[in-house]
Amino acid sequence: MKIKIGVDGGGSKTEIVALDQKDQVLRCLRKPASNYHAVGIEQAVQHIVEGIRDALQGDTLEGIGISLAGIDTPEDWNIMADGLKQNLKALSLKTVSSQEVPVVLENDAFGALMSVRGKFSGNVLASGTGAVALGVNTEGEVFRVGGWGHLIGDQGSGYDIGRKALAAAVASYDGYGPKSLLETKITEHLGLAQVPEISYWLYQPNRTNKEVAALVPVVVETARMGDYIAKLILDESGQALGLLTRALLRKTHGLEVGLVGGIRHILGFIEPSLLATIQEEFPTVQILKPNYPPSVGAALLSMVSQVRHIAF
Predict the structure, then answer these.
(1) Which residues, in sequence order, are bridge partners of residue 144?
(2) What is the signed CA dihedral for 60, 93, 17, 245, rounded to 10 degrees?
(3) Strand partners, 25
(4) Which class in CATH covers the domain with range 2-117+292-301?
(5) Distance between CA atoms of residues 37 and 10, nearest Å
(6) Is residue 97's pLDDT more than 90?
(7) Residue 89 to residue 68: CA distance in whole angstroms
(8) Pure H helices in the chain
(9) What would the CATH number be for the domain defined by 158-288?
(10) Is the predicted pLDDT of residue 41 greater than 80, yes or no?
């Protein structure tokens, strides 16, 4: 049987799928994280290659699409491509015509784009721990907005929401900011005895952005309780993501955008400000839900010629 393999990797897990010739999922499995910034290049490569090997099961390959968080610069791409090259060679991957298998390596936003409609076109807003918008116009030109990381970007992301919630909690405690239930809710959630321990928790050397982003459900719960500051943080997140989307739509001239990532789980809280912000400039914009999971999007990406391929 001829199959396509898709790899969707991030800082917490890697999902691998094998698709048949009708693009139906034959196998789906998970491996540990494959963002090399989080786990190192050796571990990232090992998890990806083991996943591909386990998904293959003797079938003939049409292509492999690898869509990873952390592939943001040419240097990132070269590091990961070099790490994967020798390890994939050891699997002796061949197509039905005994040619080298096409292997695509791209940022996870590309898999997210393909997950919306299964086509290398349109626009996607991918927001989880970080935030990035990616689009392809009718001429096939690729545009990216955001994805600059938590120090200078990622406005509206899960990390941004979590960071603002921590800031609001200590501001409430100190009295230089409005009183907020986040002060007690976050302290309780983190298992801390008192608010001053937040700084000790936050500044641990191994503290990850994902752990900060994991505070989003606490913010949502606090907003449900009517807390003004929690509501404001979520509203500001929607506005920031709306501005990111507007910047992309100006470049691609599109009027549809797919929403992918953890953002979808809190859409009820951020959608009003997200939509209002986009519609200030693009009043007829349509928001789309993805048709496929990102790992399937990665597999479909393996058949796209306008993306970066690993040369063997």
Answers:
(1) 134
(2) -120
(3) 19
(4) alpha beta
(5) 10
(6) no
(7) 20
(8) 36-39, 41-56, 74-89, 108-117, 158-174, 182-189, 197-202, 209-213, 216-224, 228-252, 267-279, 294-301
(9) 3.30.420.40
(10) yes
